[in-house]
Design brief:
about 50% helix, about 20% strand, 14 helices, globular, alpha/beta, 9 strands
């Protein structure tokens, strides 16, 4: 009886040891993204982790770090850190990698797109493949495209109905191209990390900002510190889920396929929920007390004409051939 008991104890200890060994052998990867943990960025990142763990029978797990924590809060540094292998995965938007890869600004050229169909024609087609190739040259492998969305402008001073209404407003922007856009409109652009922006808006350090409704303005509760929103759809910003090239090339083809499949499914989910939140966002923001203005086609034309100098400047930086490939894909979709 005693021997059986000792044997059972030994077997239990051995199984526990094997389980502990298995847990120790599981690889945990770090994923960084720009925004807070209430956004669709976070939900897409978490979905990727869930799908990857499932696909690899828990051999891989993903720990998500919001607010660019792994790059000291600097959202512009994340892609560069992924490129040199300091971070494993990143969910970031195209405009946030333009200091490293200027060509990625093509997605956000002012008034390039007029609909989601235009967007999908580029991210799901040859232009998206070309941009992934360019990112790979910087040692970041683009696994899938997600959605930040059409960027809308908010402020606390006055409704924005014409380019002249932006004159002199202190506007928080995410990157260099948006500095040129705001300068063209007569605003005073202030480049600032997103993690610092809410407080800056609250304290009046800046008057306004521009961001997508579903992915940022609602989940980050921008409506609590901003009075006016203009749905001018002036620029689009896609997300992408990327992985370090060094890490990617350490896996065999079967593992790469599992990682890729999990990323594609996760970003499709992220895009779906972002577009859904955006579709019902205008009504929600009005319910929260924001004054929302939706410009007429003629008013949009005035904004487009005012931002044309910024478009031309950045089209030259991006490369006319790349811009043309995007425009060709958009024309074909229409």
């Amino acid at each position: 009886m005693r021997l059986r008991k000792l044997g059972a104890i030994a077997l239990g200890s051995m199984l526990a040891g094997m389980a502990a060994l298995g847990a120790a052998q599981a690889e945990t990867f770090r994923l960084s993204h720009n925004t807070g943990d209430t956004t669709t960025w976070q939900r897409g990142a978490e979905k990727f982790g869930e799908l990857l763990s499932e696909a690899t029978d828990d051999a891989f797990s993903v720990r998500v770090f919001p607010n660019a924590q792994l790059s000291g809060g600097d959202q512009m540094k994340q892609a560069e850190m992924v490129g040199r292998g300091a971070i494993d995965f990143v969910v970031t938007s195209a405009i946030n990698v333009t200091p490293l890869v200027p060509e990625m600004a093509v997605f956000s050229l002012p008034y390039l797109y007029s609909s989601y169909e235009d967007v999908d024609a580029t991210t799901d087609g040859a232009p998206g493949e070309r941009m992934a190739e360019i990112m790979a040259e910087h040692d970041v492998i683009v696994l899938a495209w997600g959605e930040n969305g059409f960027r809308e402008v908010t402020n606390n001073v006055r409704p924005i109905k014409t380019p002249e209404d932006l004159q002199g407003l202190k506007m928080r922007v995410a990157g260099p191209m948006y500095i040129d856009v705001m300068n063209a409109l007569g605003a005073n652009p202030q480049q600032m990390q997103w993690s610092e922006t809410f407080t800056a808006l609250q304290q009046g350090v800046v008057d306004g900002q521009e961001n997508p409704i579903g992915a940022v303005i609602i989940p980050q509760r921008v409506y609590e510190v901003q009075k006016y929103l203009t749905a001018w759809h002036y620029s689009y910003d896609p997300l992408f889920l990327g992985v370090s090239r060094k890490l990617w090339e350490s896996w065999d083809e079967e593992t790469q396929a599992k990682v890729k499949e999990a990323a594609v499914e996760a970003m499709a989910y992220q895009k779906e929920i972002t577009r859904g939140d955006t579709a019902k966002g205008i009504d929600f923001l009005r319910e929260q007390g924001m004054e929302v203005y939706e410009p007429t086609p003629e008013e949009i034309r005035a904004f487009r004409e005012a931002t044309q100098p910024a478009f031309d400047t950045w089209a030259a930086k991006v490369g006319e051939d790349i811009v043309q490939s995007f425009q060709n894909a958009i024309d074909a979709s229409n």
